[in-house]
Amino acid sequence: MKTSDFDYHLPEELIAQTPLKVRSNSRLLVMNRTNKDIFHDSFNHLGDYLKKGDVLVLNDTKVIPARLYGTKEETFANIEVLLLNQYGLDSWEALVKPAKRVKVGTRISFGEGLLKLECTESLEEGIRRFKLEYKGVLEDILDLLGEMPLPPYIHEKLVDQSRYQTVYSKITGSAAAPTAGLHFTKALMDSLKEKGVIIEYVTLHVGLGTFRPVKVDNVLEHKMHSEFYQMTQSTADVLNLAKAEGRDIVAVGTTSVRTMETIMTKYGTFKEANGFTEIFIYPGYQFKAIDTLITNFHLPKSTLLMLVSAFSSKEIIMNAYTEAVKEKYRFFSFGDSMIIRK
């Protein structure tokens, strides 16, 4: 299986640079993965494609303003740091630019010393491990010093930082938003609940994989970066009951998919769990957890496109993407959405 198999042509003007004024006014491509039918609708009408008793699973991670600009204490050289994963008390993995200037023992200062990082380990691909030094609450300091880490294909300045958060974000720790959830409004979620749709949450902190393209020709040689996930017992109970009763589990976004599939693969059932996952889902994977997927349109040759292709087929997804390009859908983080149904 070649990475190039998941390539497609996307005119640059279809890459959404800013969010819509109203989140749920985005378009919704509705695809049946069995008969390959495609419909065009609005995300406001999502409830038309869900049933009473369906369990809608959202990722409640919250993006931190994780991009920081500081200087080396020794030389005052400018250093950019993108915090990725917390792996211990005040210990973080981060992507560094320029990485060659940061070695074990290097100290970086931010905001005239409000926050200091000391490099404790040098990893591959520009990643370093740091011990953080600060006084007060780290989240408050990051709010003061950091920027939202928008993906590199977004060139417009984000005026309202909250638009890169879901309206239900809760658990702080992501370096990027779970973008399929950006379409939801509280009003839409209330209407789904009134219809009898059950809403549950898992957490997966989106990390480096969002920023890294697949660089190998053979898909099977790609290594996923680990991301922290967790599921509560109460959510596990709801999901297990839905499975037992034959009701549909609807994943919002690839991050929710990866969390649920990780747990089902490891335990054979839903249960309270947390840890780090490196699960890589590509065509040939047998899904164990989900029945329906709500997702955005993903970058060419990305692991996210491979996951979506695995849920239906590469042929079906590529046809849907061709249709979306023809109909001038908006792509990527601030773009439109699709729902893939049975």
Give the key terms.
2 domains, alpha/beta, 29% strand, Thrombin, subunit H, 17 strands, 342 residues, QueA-like
Poorly predicted tracts of residues: none
Tally of domains = 2
* Number of DSSP strand runs: 17
| Secondary-structure arrangement, i.e. CATH architecture of the largest domain | 3-Layer(aba) Sandwich
Task: Name the CATH superfamily classification of the largest domain.
Answer: QueA-like
Number of helices: 6
Principal-axes geometry comes out as globular
Sheet with most strands: strand arrangement: 2-1-17-16-14-3-12-13-15
- Integer-rounded radius of gyration: 20 Å
How would you summarize the topology of this molecule?
Elements: E1 27-32, E2 38-42, E3 55-59, E4 61-63, E5 67-72, E6 78-88, E7 91-97, E8 107-110, E9 115-122, E10 127-134, H1 138-145, E11 171-174, H2 186-195, E12 198-204, E13 227-231, H3 233-245, E14 249-252, H4 254-267, E15 273-277, E16 292-296, H5 303-311, H6 314-326, E17 337-341
Parallel strand pairs: 1-17, 3-12, 3-14, 4-11, 14-16
Antiparallel strand pairs: 1-2, 5-6, 5-8, 6-7, 7-10, 8-9, 9-10, 12-13, 13-15, 16-17
Helix pairs in contact: 5-6
